[in-house]
């Protein structure tokens, strides 16, 4: 789990306005109607709702809506150290299949950086409509992806994503450097990225900023609701939460705890990027 800056406009907007959990590695499969499992040790994406339900079922996906996010698009984060910035950059590129090996040399001399997302969009479903659609639905405990919700020892809680925040480009801005004539070498960075053949283009609006644009939007944050169910697996409630009571620790310490907001569930108490297990999606 990668800690983030408190009192940062982007982080505050994502967490306090949209009650969103920010992930360490953006992923195209982060989208509404995906189920996340979480217990005291881990978070794990389980896949979309329908394959995890007992058949026959009357469930159908509710309509997914899209809205632009001008308050996030193009807004820079607070300045962070180069090491942390490169870690965030590496994770973003990893989502597009681009290894970050060699990029640190291209930024040698930089000391403080910021970053921003552009073309940010929010994909979401109406919570009331979601509740109507899951009424009567039962989790299939014989499905290996759903079995973890029924474990007697330290079972996982079930969270349903009701929104995903996506972007297809990421700008890395050098804010401070050891030299007054510091300049980024776009050809060098472009050559490193192009070797991955991942459909990512490199551009720059100045000698201190570089923008990485992918060929598809990636989800970098999501909001979710806690789904509760009975012993048979029948979904009973979609809980919005209350006055931020602590539910359980993700990492086993006091600083990273699952918490309820008035509308949704945050999977970490302090601002952090979740290292979710993306290998557990059900196709």
List key phrases describing it:
alpha+beta; three-stranded antiparallel β-sheet; elongated; 283 residues
Structural features, described:
This protein is of the alpha+beta class and 283 residues long. The chain is built from 5 helices and 16 strands. The protein has one domain. Strands 1, 2, 3, 4, 5, 6, 7, 8, 9, 10, 11, 12 and 16 form a 13-stranded mixed beta sheet that branches. Strands 13-14-15 form a 3-stranded antiparallel beta sheet, with no helix packed on it. The longest helix is centred in the N-terminal third of the chain and has 14 residues, at 82-95.
CA(first)-CA(last) distance = 26 Å
The class by helix and strand makeup works out as alpha+beta
Strand content: 35-45%
* Average residue-wise pLDDT: 80
Layout of secondary structure:
Blueprint lengths: L1 E2 L5 H9 L3 E7 L6 E5 L4 E6 L16 E4 L11 E2 H14 L7 H4 L3 E9 L2 E4 L2 H8 L22 E21 L8 H9 L6 E6 L2 E21 L5 E5 L6 E4 L7 E4 L4 E2 L5 E3 L9
Parallel strand pairs: 2-16
Antiparallel strand pairs: 1-16, 2-11, 3-4, 3-9, 5-8, 6-7, 7-9, 8-9, 9-11, 10-11, 11-12, 13-14, 14-15
């Amino acid at each position: 789990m990668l800690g983030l800056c408190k009192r940062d406009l982007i982080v505050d907007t994502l967490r306090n306005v949209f009650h969103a959990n920010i992930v360490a590695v953006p992923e195209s499969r982060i989208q509404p109607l995906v189920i996340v499992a979480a217990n005291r040790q881990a978070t794990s994406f389980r896949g979309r709702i329908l394959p995890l339900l007992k058949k026959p079922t009357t469930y159908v996906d509710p309509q997914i809506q899209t809205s632009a996010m001008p308050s996030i698009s193009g807004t820079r984060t607070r300045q962070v150290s180069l090491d942390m910035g490169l870690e965030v950059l590496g994770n973003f590129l990893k989502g597009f299949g681009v290894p970050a090996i060699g990029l640190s040399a291209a930024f040698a001399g930089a000391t403080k950086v910021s970053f921003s997302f552009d073309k940010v969009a929010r994909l979401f479903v109406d919570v009331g409509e979601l509740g109507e659609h899951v009424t009567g639905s039962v989790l299939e405990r014989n499905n290996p992806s759903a079995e973890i919700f029924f474990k007697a020892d330290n079972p996982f809680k079930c969270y349903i994503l009701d929104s995903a925040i996506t972007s297809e480009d990421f700008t890395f801005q050098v804010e401070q450097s050891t030299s007054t004539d510091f300049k980024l070498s776009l050809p060098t960075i472009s050559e490193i990225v192009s070797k991955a053949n991942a459909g990512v283009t490199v551009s720059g609006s100045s000698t201190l900023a570089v923008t990485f644009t992918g060929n598809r939007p990636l989800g970098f944050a999501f909001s979710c609701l806690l789904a509760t169910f009975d012993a048979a697996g029948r979904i009973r409630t979609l809980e919005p939460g209350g006055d931020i009571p602590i539910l359980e620790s993700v990492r086993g310490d006091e600083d990273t705890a699952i918490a309820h907001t008035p509308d949704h569930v945050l999977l970490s108490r302090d601002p952090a990027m979740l290292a979710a297990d993306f290998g557990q999606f059900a196709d």
